[in-house]
Amino acid sequence: MMERRSPSKTKWLLCPVCKSKTRVRIRDDTILENFPLYCPKCKNETLINMISFRITVIKEPDAKTQSR
Description:
The protein is mostly beta strands. It has a domain at 30-60. It is 0% helix and 46% strand. The protein has no helices and 5 strands. The protein has strands spanning 10-14, 21-27, 31-38, 45-51, 54-57. A 3-stranded antiparallel sheet has the order 3-4-5, with no helix packed on it. Strand 4 (45-51) and strand 5 form a beta hairpin. This is Cysteine-rich KTR.
């Protein structure tokens, strides 16, 4: 027999830039690390971490020019 779980809470992942709904749906037990989140509305891709609905935006270091 299949074991039944209690229904877990789900939410749509919101874009950290424009706060609109993305195409990613998450559950309360979802853990994302270094996830490239794309927003179809503002067309930005943001690198995020997410644990129990808490989103942290990862700031990528700017590329430095090489000097000779």
